[in-house]
Specification:
The protein is mainly β and about 260 residues long. The protein has 4 helices and 20 strands. A hairpin with a 2-residue loop joins strand 7 (about 65-70) and strand 8 (about 75-80). The chain starts with a strand and ends with a strand.
Length: about 260
C-alpha cells in the first residue's frame, strides 16, 4: 500500500493520560500501554467524548484495529490504527487482539461494508479481493458509491461524508488516503485547475476553530464534473465543478486546491 499522506497523525494523549509510547514526547500525569483490539461488527462510530451522544468524529470498519488506552462504563478510548483518529467507541463492538487480514470487501452491497478487513474468505455473501490485489481507479469506486447517504463523520459504503468518500475510494485502490480534508489537501502534488483530469482531488479548506471537519473534498470525474458527498444534496452525487465551486465559495470556504494523487 502506498502512503500518500504527509500529515501528522493525532496523538493518543490527554493531560491526565497518554500512551506509553509517547512518554518523553508529550506531558501527561500518567502513561499506559495500549491494548490492541479490532472491530467485530460491520461499522462502529468513533465519538469525540465518552458520551455516545457526542459528536461522531469517524468510524471503524469490520476487522480494523483500535488501540485502546482506557475503558470506562462500557466505552473505550483509543486510536484507530488505519487512519489515526482518536476517540471513544463502544467496548462491546470490539474484540481483543488483531488478526492479519487476508482479504478486503470489494462490494458496496455485501453483508460487510466496502474495505472491511476479513481473515476468513469463506464468510457468506462477501465479495472479496485478496490483500494486495487492489482496484485501479478511485473514480470508478466513487461512481459505485453515488447515491450513498451523506452523514458527517461517516466513512463507509453505508453512509459517508465528503472526505470519507475520498478515503474509501483511495483505500480500495491500495492508497492510504488521509481522513480529513486538510490532510487530503497535502496528498500527492499540487496542480493547476486548468490541468485537472479524472482522478485528481479538489479540496476547499475551511479551518475554523471549534469544528472537527476542515473543508470539503471531491474527486474529478471529467473536465467538467466532480463526484462528492454533500450535505446540500444529502448523498454522494455527480455535479458540475462550477456549481460545487460556487456553493463552497459562497459558504465561505477557501478557493479550491487541486491535487494529483499519482
Amino acid at each position: 500500500m502506498t502512503d500518500l499522506s504527509v500529515s501528522t497523525r493525532p496523538m493518543l494523549a490527554r493531560p491526565d493520560l497518554a500512551a506509553l509510547a509517547l512518554e518523553g514526547m508529550v506531558r501527561a500525569e500518567a502513561y499506559r500501554p495500549t491494548r490492541a483490539m479490532r472491530l467485530r461488527v460491520p461499522v462502529a462510530d468513533i465519538h469525540a467524548q465518552a458520551d455516545p451522544a457526542s459528536e461522531r468524529l469517524d468510524q471503524l470498519l469490520f476487522g480494523e484495529a483500535f488501540d485502546v488506552l482506557e475503558d470506562r462504563d462500557g466505552r473505550a478510548w483509543g486510536q484507530a490504527r488505519r487512519d489515526g483518529v482518536v476517540g471513544w467507541v463502544d467496548l462491546s463492538d470490539l474484540t481483543p487482539g488483531t488478526l492479519r487480514p487476508t482479504h478486503s470487501v470489494s462490494a458496496i452491497d455485501a453483508d460487510l461494508p466496502l474495505n472491511a478487513l476479513v481473515t476468513d474468505p469463506s464468510e457468506p455473501d462477501l465479495r472479496l479481493r485478496p490483500i494486495g490485489d487492489f482496484e485501479r481507479d478511485p473514480v470508478t469506486i466513487a461512481e459505485r458509491l453515488v447515491g450513498t447517504p451523506h452523514a458527517l463523520g461517516a466513512r463507509s459504503s453505508i453512509a459517508t461524508d465528503c472526505s470519507g468518500l475520498i478515503q474509501q475510494a483511495l483505500l480500495a485502490c491500495g492508497l492510504s488516503g488521509a481522513r480529513r480534508a486538510h490532510e487530503q489537501a497535502e496528498i500527492g502534488h499540487a496542480i493547476d485547475r486548468r490541468d485537472a483530469r479524472r482522478g485528481d482531488l479538489v479540496i476547499w479548506l475551511s479551518l475554523a476553530e471549534r469544528q472537527s471537519w476542515t473543508g470539503h473534498s471531491a474527486i474529478v470525474l471529467d473536465e467538467a464534473r466532480v463526484i462528492h458527498a454533500t450535505g446540500f444534496h444529502g448523498a454522494v452525487v455527480i455535479e458540475a465543478l462550477t456549481e460545487a465551486d460556487a456553493r463552497c465559495l459562497s459558504d465561505g470556504f477557501d478557493p479550491a486546491v487541486f491535487r494529483r494523487v499519482r
